Amino acid sequence: MNAETYADKASNIFVLSDSFIRIKELIDDESSTIDDISDVILLDPALAATVLKLANSSFFNYPGKIDTISKAVLVLGITEVYNLVIAYFTTEAFKAIDANSKYLDYFWLRSVDCALLIKFLGTHLNVANAERLFILGLLHNLGELVVLQITPKLIGECVSSDTAKPPWQKQREVLGFTFGECSAELLKLWQLPYGLFAPIRYQDVDDVNQYNVETQLLYIAKRVMTKTHVIKSSKYDELIDKTLLDELNLDVNTLAQAVDYCDLERLDMLSILSPGAAMVF
């Protein structure tokens, strides 16, 4: 099976709720108002609570208190609230997976770390609305859960702690595609924006220098996360193209600062999106 086939099978198992579909329709409709979007979010108390927790977290560092969904949409913007909605419904959709809880906790730990790392790097480089990059990191590896659900026996074969053959290369060898490519296919079937799934699809290409800054930052954040959690003995220059770091004016010290930021923010974010992982951590 190729990545598209895996994603197609998974899309029948991991389904976004009707509330998400309605919110997406409203956001796509230019005539919709903030109140229209807020009213639909409020129909799902758990979603509303999660959006408010995220909006008031140190992640956004808003100086005042955001105590209503309408204010969240007004202050953060429709696109950012939409990303928070995607984050919530994605984690909810994958609760249906048949998997060991410790495995899932470790998966979301790595995903949240990648999300925080890319957000830090985007902020450091003054990328506009860098918070939006968080969703790329959070969803970058959903294909791992897809493969785990569809062909669980192959997951173990995709594991690698060798810099000579890092996980994404091992995935190509075993599956013929990467988890990132499978993630992108699922997000495409969910009809999420191209600007969201394209960087995820191309996060492991060899010539990432030719792609946009979102793809480049995801490439870097994913590899920093890999060094932190997967290939701990590796060095950054074994995983990351130094030419790209030079072009973006990033260095090892900046990557270390990103890891420090991640260490500070990880527990708060996990407690909102994946409480089980927060307890383990």
UniProtKB/TrEMBL annotation:
The organism's place on the tree of life at top rank: Bacteria
Pfam families linked to this entry: HDOD (PF08668)
InterPro entries registered for this protein in UniProt: HDOD (IPR013976), RNase_Y/CdgJ (IPR052340)
Protein name: HDOD domain-containing protein
Species for this entry: Litorilituus sediminis
Domain called HDOD: residue spans: 13-206
